[in-house]
């Protein structure tokens, strides 16, 4: 089971998200918070696999809560009603593993939680391309410690298109373990912390 701590300051939204996630056979909501401070406390106490945090919350917002949990073994997915570049940028910069709009639907919500738990990153398709181009224009491209191999370049481009490890394995006709090995090598060469930063580098260097 994927254990989730959920945080949203609106009771109706909070309960709706909890019901959607608990309806999944492999996901369990183990803690619910109404503000970012309580979300951080619950995440540290309950050690969930994933935190699903709203951005706009009292006491402590979702972005700051994400930043405070950056060194903890919990993957954060940020969810919001506001499709604003600065929110997406700030959330991912703080270490979030995913970004969703609240109207994304139950299937994408569950997929984002699963992806985060598996070490992947899922960003709402409606903001992905624009987001990555915003990131790319805001940073200077990192120079890799050594050149990427041809197969690593294939994996890199697939990551930038939003593919999960399982999808990449199917597309490239390689095993899931091989994809993970390539990803580990790419991240090491780029000094990237997660898949989002790998995708950003692909856009910065015009691989996609």
TrEMBL record:
| Modified positions (4-aspartylphosphate) in chain numbering | 54
Tell whether Protease is among the UniProt keywords. Answer: no
Q: Which UniProt keywords apply?
A: DNA-binding, Phosphoprotein, Transcription, Transcription regulation
- CDD domains membership: LuxR_C_like, REC_NarL-like
Q: Is Transcription regulation there in the keyword field?
A: yes
Which InterPro entries does this UniProt record tie to the protein?
CheY-like_superfamily, NreC/VraR/RcsB-like_REC, Sig_transdc_resp-reg_C-effctor, Sig_transdc_resp-reg_receiver, Tscrpt_reg_LuxR_C, WalR-like
Occurrences of domain HTH luxR-type (ranges) = 141-206
Cite the Response regulatory domain residue spans from the record. 3-117
**What protein am I looking at?**
Response regulator transcription factor
Which species does this protein come from?
Answer: Microbacterium lacus
